[in-house]
Amino acid sequence: MHDQANPGGVLRGIRQSLGPDGVYIAQDINGSSDVHLNREHPIGTLLYTISCMHCMTVSLAQNGEGLGAMWGREKAEALMSEAGFRSIEVYELPHDFQNNYYVCRP
Fold this sequence. Notes:
Elements: H1 7-17, E1 24-29, H2 44-60, H3 72-82, E2 87-91, E3 99-105
Antiparallel strand pairs: 1-3, 2-3
């Protein structure tokens, strides 16, 4: 989602396409929207580098928001909520320190 030019618009479109019992499941980078909270992330430096060299540029090339891979859980949840998802559960899997898994329902 973070690579999209208009992630909020994409999320609104997904939300509008779901029925009342629909579920949207997303996997995205496990990071914080606050840079200082990512200092101890095991591969934080790599993720910021990839974000600057790829993720942000993909979005910015389309006049997008340029959120990047380290947009963070807080921003992700805020955009999902603004898109109309009323239930947002976030899971971290023990074997996967790199990703969060979002289960979003209308």
